[in-house]
Amino acid sequence: MESEITRRGKAGRPRPNREIDLYSTPGGTRAVENPVRRAILAALREREHTFEEIVDLAGRAKSTISVHLRDLVAAGVVGSRVDPEDARRKIFHLTGGLVASVSPQDRLDDEITAYAGTYRPGSSDPYTFYRLAFRTIRVALMQEGVLLDPLLTRAGERIGEELYPAVAGPDTEAFCTNIARFWEEHRLGRVEVAGTGPLTLLVYDCFECADLPVTGKPACAFDSRILRALFTRHYGRPTAAIETRCYAMGFDHCRFEVVPEVTQELENLPA
């Protein structure tokens, strides 16, 4: 089991061409490099699984999966309990959550990392500095290939739960109006409803990504999760806010589709 990112190679940097996931555990943070283990953990992030389900999802031999699970349990990343419907079976689950991912392939080019944000001395907008700090720190991490989406997701979920009472409405139209007002008042962006089938929100001047470099990938994990938490509470069922456009993808706005949440299963890995 990989326990430290810097076990080999230059301190503080991932080994070339190796992707790493960082998981929280009761004993601290653990780094996982093996692609099969990373895939097993990705499935367990969705829900608990029995051993047989993990074998089927991974498409690997039982003996191989058994070894991986044994090491993950020993490292404290995975826990297990007896299946209440069959005492001969175990059900596996995560003991913590995904903290971040390190991907050398996702490091930004030097030209892009020259980005330092924009700050105008004497600005009367109290939010300017905080937006600059948030984006600059994030770009600095992206420069090293560190993807904070998991942490931003968890933070967004908590904030969405706290925010809901402030924007709750009697119907979806009033709810969206309240969200748009809150976003504007707190300089989070300008929200517009672009459609209702599915419900589609456009966010202009998005605080999370409007000044980020163009990477071709959506960058609003924080915003997406806030919206997910809000609409899950509003509809009373799991609801996703899927980002289909983003400033970081080269658009002049971010676009979110609010749809019923669908559990994603682990795709089979090649043998």
Describe the overall structure.
This protein has 271 residues and is α+β, with helices and mostly antiparallel strands. It has 2 domains: 5-98, Orthogonal Bundle (Arc Repressor Mutant, subunit A), CATH 1.10.10.10; 129-260, 2-Layer Sandwich (Muramoyl-pentapeptide Carboxypeptidase, domain 2). The chain is built from 8 helices and 11 strands. It has helices spanning 35-46, 51-58, 62-74, 110-113, 128-143, 149-167, 172-185, 221-235; strands spanning 20-25, 28-32, 49-50, 78-83, 86-94, 98-102, 146-147, 190-196, 199-204, 239-245, 254-260. A 4-stranded antiparallel β-sheet has the order 2-1-6-7. A 4-stranded antiparallel β-sheet has the order 8-9-11-10, with helices on one face. A 3-stranded antiparallel β-sheet has the order 3-5-4. Helix 6 (149-167) crosses helix 8 (221-235). The radius of gyration is 21 Å and the shape is globular. Mean pLDDT is 82; it is low at 2-16 and 263-271.
Write the layout of secondary structure elements.
Layout (H helix, E strand, L loop, with lengths): L19 E6 L2 E5 L2 H12 L2 E2 H8 L3 H13 L3 E6 L2 E9 L3 E5 L7 H4 L14 H16 L2 E2 L1 H19 L4 H14 L4 E7 L2 E6 L16 H15 L3 E7 L8 E7 L11
Antiparallel strand pairs: 1-2, 1-6, 3-5, 4-5, 6-7, 8-9, 9-11, 10-11
